[in-house]
Write a structure and sequence with these properties.
Elements lengths: L4 H9 L7 E4 L18 E4 L3 E4 L22 E7 L2 H9 L5 E4 L3 E3 L4 E2 L14 H7 L3 E4 L11 E2 L14 E3 L3 E6 L2 E7 L5 H6 L5 E2 L10
Parallel strand pairs: 1-2, 1-5, 5-8, 6-9, 8-10, 12-13
Antiparallel strand pairs: 2-3, 3-4, 6-7, 10-11, 11-12
Length: 218
């Protein structure tokens, strides 16, 4: 069975390490804030000017003035700080972010990422994506394995305009966990009930996957 968006976020949360400064992109990545493991202290950063972001608020507790970069209402943690976007992007560009979790429309087998524009469609802008992929120490992508037409989003090369070049280290999709290596994608874990053959069939880029690749455990 393919993973839900919440399960993708839950699996990515296991990649967090104590003391990390983490930026969560729009979409599935924002859900990671709800699954930070106990005993792990991380500081979530939002490029619109917040350090110390907490989980999503409960219904009725929302503050319309407290939002993340995706305009979702969020909570603050004790010790959080608010500042302008210039300082926020200075933090990103100076390499202070240990991990960035981003959504994507396509990822290439060499680690290229396309996540901001589909030609011919209106977009609000790139936001902080290009700065994040250029400066973050580690980048994990959270996305569906295929697009709405059933076509693979893990490709030999991206067909959409690139956001970053050779920057993605790991991808978590609804089918499994994949590392980007010099030989292309390597499947490290598969979603419970998803077969090795299904992963092969739905991955267009170069893929190495063992017949006994372990299933994720939740």
């Amino acid at each position: 069975m393919a993973l839900t968006k919440e399960q993708i976020a839950q699996r990515i949360a296991r990649e967090l390490q104590d003391g990390y400064y983490v930026n969560l992109g729009i979409g599935i990545p924002t859900l990671v804030a709800n699954y930070i493991p106990q005993g792990i202290s991380v500081v979530l950063q939002s490029e619109n000017g917040l350090l110390g972001m907490g989980p999503f608020p409960f219904d009725g507790d929302e503050d319309p003035d407290m939002i993340n970069a995706g305009k979702q209402t969020i909570t603050e943690l004790p010790g959080s700080a608010l500042f302008d976007s210039a300082m926020s992007f200075g933090m990103i560009r100076s390499g202070r972010i240990d991990l960035t979790v981003l959504g994507a429309m396509e990822v290439a087998e060499n680690g290229d990422i396309a996540n901001w524009k589909i030609p011919g469609k209106m977009v609000k802008g790139m936001g902080g994506a290009m700065d994040l992929v250029a400066a973050a120490k580690n980048i994990i992508v959270a996305m569906q394995h295929t697009n709405p037409k059933g076509q693979s989003k893990l490709l030999p090369q991206c067909s959409l305009p690139l956001t970053g070049i050779k920057c993605v280290k790991k991808i978590v999709t609804d089918l499994g966990v994949f590392s980007v290596t010099e030989q292309g994608f390597r499947c490290d874990e598969r979603a419970p009930g998803v077969s090795v053959q299904e992963i092969r069939d739905k991955t267009a880029g170069r893929l190495s996957i063992a017949d006994d690749v372990p299933e994720m455990v939740f």
